[in-house]
Amino acid sequence: MRQVVIDLLDNLNKSNVVKPLIKDETFIIKITCDTEEYYIELKDIQFFLLTKDPPKSDIVLEGSENCLRSILLGKTLLRNVISEKKIIVHSTLRKLLKLESLLYLVNI
After folding, report:
1. Which domains does the chain have, with CATH numbers?
2. Which residues, at least 6 apart from 95, have a Cβ–Cβ distance to it below 8 Å?
3. Cα 64 to the chain's mean position, in Å?
4. Are the C-beta atoms of residues 26 and 54 closer than 8 Å to each other?
5. Cα 106 to Cα 108: distance, rounded to the nearest angstrom
């Protein structure tokens, strides 16, 4: 799973398509699967994998490794797994829609 997250970060940072969407945005995404947790920070139009737990996450995704891997690789839409209750999400609607757009655009 770690390699999937690292590859996603590389794709997000290299993609010119997502840059206009994330201008002036800052947020932290927490991804929890089984026994693993990953924190991704968006700051200054760059995505980073955090090594320490941040005090607060703006978006939290919790679910099985297979389900989260499928979302991060762009094989499954985030909204579909949410409606099927395969993952648990804590976020504002606005940030959730932005995340879904980023995941879709970086994987097409």
Report:
1. 2-103 (3.30.1050.10)
2. 27, 58, 59
3. 15
4. no
5. 6
SS (H, E, C) the chain: CHHHHHHHHHHHHHCCCCHHHHCCCCEEEEEEECCEEEEEEEECCEEEEECCCCCCCCEEEEECHHHHHHHHCCCCCHHHHHHCCCEEEECCHHHHHHHHHHHHHHCC
pLDDT at 81: 92
**Exposure b/e, 12-46, CB count within 10 A at least 16 = b:** beebeebeeebeeeebbbbbbbeeeebbbbbeeee
Q: What is the pLDDT of residues 11-31, one digit of tens each?
A: 999 998 888 888 888 999 999
